[in-house]
Amino acid sequence: MLELGKAIRIVREAKGMRLAMLAERGGVSVPFLSLVENGERQPSLVVLRKLAEGLGIPPETLILLSQPPGGNLRSGDQASQSLITAIKKLIAVEDDLRSKIALGAKAHASKSTDR
């Protein structure tokens, strides 16, 4: 399952939007939006709709992204499908980079203790 918060953050950053701007548009606090983006809180459907509108994307895009693999929700909207595919690719790349960074940090720490 893609994390809803990751999708929100990726779209927000791709649009060059600051956290405070999207929080204002979504009618939430900056700390709450930060928790959502970090996967520690889930927005209500009303807030999700406002955040999607603030991002300039259809709310269904964020809902579809939050579905588990093989989920039965689908969209016939080609723009939503294209955006979902792009976001999934970005999240996969981000996860891969984070894994590589973590492995590099562990290797560096291991070398430091071997000295």
Kindly list the characteristics that best describe this protein.
115 residues; 434 Repressor (Amino-terminal Domain)
Structure description:
The chain is mainly α and 115 residues long. It has a single domain, classed as lambda repressor-like DNA-binding domains (434 Repressor (Amino-terminal Domain)). It is globular. The mean pLDDT is 82.
Summarize the structure.
This protein is mainly alpha-helical and 115 residues long. The protein has a single domain (4-114), classed as Orthogonal Bundle (434 Repressor (Amino-terminal Domain)), CATH 1.10.260.40.
Summed up, the domain count is 1
Q: Count the DSSP helices.
A: 6
* CATH class placement: Mainly Alpha
- Which bin fits the share of residues in helices? over 70%
For the termini, the CA-CA separation is: 42 Å
Largest sheet: none
Annotated CATH homologous superfamily? lambda repressor-like DNA-binding domains
Helix/strand order, N-terminal first: HHHHHH
Query: Which percent band covers the strand fraction?
Result: under 5%
Output mean pLDDT.
82
Total beta strand runs: 0
Secondary structure category: mainly alpha
Uncertain segments of ≥5 residues (pLDDT<50)? none
CATH fold label: 434 Repressor (Amino-terminal Domain)
Instruction: Tell me the Rg in angstroms.
Output: 17 Å
- CATH architecture annotation name: Orthogonal Bundle
- Note the overall shape: globular
